[in-house]
Amino acid sequence: MSQNSYSSQRKCACGLVVKTLNSSTTSNPGRRFYRCPHPDFSSCGYWEWEDQAFPEVAYLRNLESSLKDVKMEMDNSKIEVGNLKIEMENLKIAVENLKIKAGHLSEIIATLEASNDLVVEKVRTFEDKYHKIKYKVMISCFLFVGFLVAITTK
C-alpha cells in the first residue's frame, strides 16, 4: 500500500495540494511521488516522482527485494540439486542392475557357446560317419554291380 500525506505545497491542475505517496511496487519500493488528491475517475491526472525523498530506503528495499529473489533462486537451485542427486542415485542403481543383468547374460552366452560347440562337434561326427557309410555303400554298390556283370557275362 502507498502511504500518503498532504504536506507538500505543490498543486495539481485542479488547484488542490497534491498528495505525497510512497510507492509500494517492487520496481520502485519506497520511492515518493506526487499525485492529484481526487479519486482516479475525477483526477486531473497530475503525477510526478519526488526522486530524492527516500533514496536510501528505496535502494535498501531494492537490495532487500533482490536478496529475496536471490535467496529464492538459491532455494530453488538447492531443490533442483537435491532432485538431480536423487536422479543420479537412481541412475547409479539402474547401472548396477544393468551390470548384474549383463553378468547373467554373459553366463547365458557362455553356456550357449559351450552348447553350440557340442552341437558343432556332434554334427562333425555325424558328417564323418555319414561320409564313411556313403563310401561303404558306394563301394558295395560297385562290387555288387561288378559281381552282377561278371555273372551275367559268363
Automatic annotation (TrEMBL):
Pfam families the UniProt entry points to: Zn_ribbon_GRF (PF06839)
Record carries keyword Zinc-finger: yes
Transmembrane annotation, as ranges: 133-151
Keywords: Coiled coil, Membrane, Metal-binding, Transmembrane, Transmembrane helix, Zinc, Zinc-finger
GO molecular function, one term: zinc ion binding
Domain of life, per lineage: Eukaryota
GRF-type domain boundaries: 12-53
Organism: Solanum commersonii
InterPro entries xrefs: Znf_GRF (IPR010666)
Name recorded for this polypeptide: GRF-type domain-containing protein
Keyword Lipid biosynthesis recorded: no
Chain coiled-coil ranges: 60-101
